[in-house]
Amino acid sequence: MPTPLRSDFDASQLRAVARKTKNAAQARRLLALAAIYEGASRTEAARIGGVTLQIVRDWVLKFNAHGPEGLIDRKPTGQPSRLSEQHRQHLVQMIEAGPIPAVHGVVRWRLGDLIQWLWDEYRVPISKQTLSREVRALGYRKLSARPRHHAKNEHAVTAFKKTSPRVWRKSRPTRPGKPLEIWFADEARIGQKNKITRRWAKRGTRPSAPRDLRTASAYIFGAICPAQGKGAGLVLPRCTTEAMALHLTEISQAVAPGAHAVLLLDQAGWHVSSKLRVPPNITLLRLPAKAPELNPVENIWQFMRENWISNRVFTSYTDILDHCCAAWTKLIDQPWTIMSIGLRDWAHAF
Fold first, then answer.
1. 269 φ/ψ sector (left φ>0, alpha ψ -120 to 50, else beta)
2. 133, 151, 295, 324: which has the highest count of C-beta atoms within 10 A?
3. With 0-12 CB in 10 A as exposed, 13-18 as middle and 19+ as buried, what is 4?
4. How confident is the model at residue 214 (pLDDT cuts 50, 70, 90)?
5. DSSP assignment, residue 133?
6. Percentage above 70 pLDDT, the chain
7. Number of Cβ atoms within 10 Å of the Cβ of 126
8. Which candidate, 324, 300, 311, places its Cα nearest to that of 220?
9. Strand order in the sheet with 282-286
10. Helix H segments across 266-334?
């Protein structure tokens, strides 16, 4: 005798569930069982479902045990993970701490290095694909690092972030009615010895990019106001006090009429020179020494190199100037990019 269907459902209820569900396989199975409720044979139900009698029997057993939800395909659990919770916690500690070159023989963790470490430490064999899923499930991604000086003073950086916004607020009464703009400035050398960036390519191949060994170069003097999404820049042959004075004049013209700019910049010699002429609508504020991560213009240079300047061969000095000017103009035409890269909570959330 065929296994009877449970008595707390009928054909009309199953057809109603089939109309509402978005799972096509479940709907097909519900209609086949609804036909059985209406008196159809199991052979007819198998024809409706496009399956064999044995599969119809399996549907009946699942339906009797779990109702309509039992007719939804469940994703197989697969093999249990090779990594235990203890393995994952230790893996997180190793990723956060980074490798010790003298001990581990590498300066950054690759999946292959972590696979070898898991084997040496726990004798756990694991594939690169599986470890990649595990690492991503722990919330880690391969990201570009911000520049950080090896000898920076963490206490000086923390103190600067805490005290500078208060100084800016206190300075407003000295300029009543004048809005305050926060600017960041820096310089980048662009030359024929250009950089090669990452690029998409087929797995197993080694993509190539043009590289030049000549030495002609120029400097982009760039400044941004992230809150307003604007900037001011010049392309000059060298970094000198006179060149910095020209850049300050350019920034002064970009400051909104009636506003005053606080310009944050590092302690390069041409920034701190007593001979530097500073326009009256700009106040220079030096960043702590050896703390380039405080200056978002460093990330602007990284963005420009990776997207517009790298992987090129500059035929002449004039060609360098043209590409630098074109890249900076393209950046100025994208105020949302300046805001996205340049805004900092410690500088703009006061």
1. alpha
2. 324
3. exposed
4. confident
5. H
6. 92
7. 18
8. 324
9. 230-236, 217-225, 180-191, 260-265, 282-286
10. 269-272, 297-304, 317-332
